[in-house]
Design brief:
single chain, alpha/beta, Rossmann fold, 2 domains, 7-stranded parallel beta sheet, 7 strands, 47% helix, globular
Length: 255
């Protein structure tokens, strides 16, 4: 078992599937006690139980990151169970395909409520805990779509750009408290959500090829490839990193 997060407690939002799920297992394998926070009760419980079955510590907490009281309850349950919070990995997010003129205000607000306000609420609830402890690490999931414009993703790209700027603000405001805040910027990743989009296409083989060919590496990422970088940012190995935006996109934003 690795020891990169030995003795640490990590909250991961959106951890029932995809990158969050991969990170939950990886963090636990590296010594962390993991809080699985997700609105998907069945999926979240399964992840927590699978981690526990390996002899590692995990707690599932039902939490909608857009509701302040649920976020506060998530933090309180983590503290009651584990006594501290060393890592917050804000991974919960949604996507929405559409140009600006095709995006309703309702859809725009939904994307921002989860992708931006959710990050804000989780940070607002966890930072006081980290201040009292003398420090901590926050990893916010932005996107390669926050670094460059992407067609047909108006609300999503705007929300991820907001996450990047909020990350920089937090890093500056809380550096003196020894709280590191960095943004992870994944490229296209073979999560359940992405694979469902491909399967729903009239020609799934062609759809997969469209996703892969825009990436210099030639294939989209696997969730574990993103989770490994999240682990690094959460660990003391990244002790001098704060306010950074780290692309993990197979070279997509290098072009």
């Amino acid at each position: 078992m690795g020891e990169r997060l030995a003795g640490k407690v990590a909250i991961i939002t959106g951890a029932s599937t995809g990158i969050g799920k991969a990170a939950a297992f990886l963090f636990a394998e590296n010594g962390a006690r993991v809080v699985i926070a997700d609105i998907n009760r069945e999926g979240g419980k399964k992840v927590a139980e699978a981690i526990q079955a390996k002899g590692q510590e995990a707690l599932y907490v039902a939490a909608d990151v857009t509701h302040p009281k649920q976020v506060q309850a998530m933090v309180q349950q983590a503290l009651e169970r584990f006594g501290r919070i060393d890592v917050l990995y804000n991974n919960a997010a949604v996507n929405f395909f559409g140009k600006a003129l095709d995006t309703s205000l309702e859809d725009w607000n939904r994307v921002f409520s989860i992708n931006v306000a959710g990050v804000f609420l989780c940070c607002k609830s966890v930072i006081p805990v980290m201040q009292a402890q003398g420090g901590g690490a926050i990893v916010n999931t932005a996107s390669s779509a926050g670094l460059v414009g992407l067609r047909n993703l108006a609300a999503y790209t705007a929300s991820k750009g907001a996450v990047l700027q909020f990350t920089k603000n937090l890093a500056l405001d809380y550096a003196a408290d020894h709280i590191r805040v960095n943004a992870l910027c994944p490229g296209v990743t073979a999560t359940e959500m992405t694979m469902q989009v491909i399967e729903d296409d009239p020609d799934p083989v062609a759809a997969r090829a469209r996703f892969d060919r825009v990436i210099p590496r030639g294939t989209m990422a696997e969730p574990i490839e993103i989770a490994r970088v999240a682990l690094f940012l959460a660990s003391d190995e990244a002790s001098y990193m704060t306010g950074a935006a780290v692309p993990v996109d197979g070279g997509y934003t290098a072009e």
